[in-house]
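Hello again, I could really use a second opinion on something today. I've been puzzling over a protein and I'd love to understand its fold better. I'm sending you its amino acid sequence along with the backbone structure tokens. It would help a lot if you went through both lines with me. I've dropped the whole record in just underneath, so have a look.
***
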Amino acid sequence: MSRDYILIIISWIAVICLLIKFIPKDKIRYAYIAFTFKQLLTWVIGFSVAELGLIEYPVRLFPNAAKTSFTFEYFLYPSLCAIFNIHFPVKKSFLSKSMYYIYYCTAMTVIEEFIVRYTNIIKYTHWAWYATWITLFLTFFMTRRFYVWYLKLDEN
């Protein structure tokens, strides 16, 4: 087994541990709303980006099923978005809320950039780190808007 597949397995285990630690049992159904909506967005965007040849995933689960990464688009990004929404700083200032988005998107982009540089899991062909950051921000923002609307939450 290559180190890239080992890294994929470790990322699955790490994110499962994060979900167990940061999603309280009484908020699982709320997390699921954010998870599935983010999954819808990332699955569509991920397929589009991979099919257009902007990003390649040389090492991935289910290589014969899709050109996109099942791990990133179907599990990791949606899971982190669920945690993001459950712990969103609702009663904080606009600056705090903005920084929350910036922290998440930046941390995820830095990790992805590390993966691009040091593994064969992701290969940017016509893509850049800032495209990742922008798409993460937009999908997190759209997921948050849906989450608030669907649950009829008061964001003020």
